[in-house]
Amino acid sequence: MSKHIIELKNIDKVYDGNPVLKNMNLYIRKNEFLTLLGPSGCGKTTTLRIIGGFETPDKGDVLFEGKKINTLPPYKRKVNTVFQKYALFPHLTVAENVAFGLKIKKMDKHTMEEKVKTMLHLVNLSGFENRSITSLSGGQQQRVAIARALVNEPEVLLLDEPLGALDLKLRKEMQIELKNMQQRLGITFIFVTHDQEEALTMSDTIVVMNEGVIQQVGSPIDIYNEPENRFVAKFIGESNIVDGIMLDDYLVDFAGYHFPCVDKGFGQNQPVDVVIRPEDVKIVTPAEGMIQGEVKSVIFKGVHYEMQVTSGDFTWMVHSTLMEAEGTQVGIQIGPNDIHIMKKEAEA
Question: Maximum CA pair distance of the chain?
Answer without folding.
Answer: 78
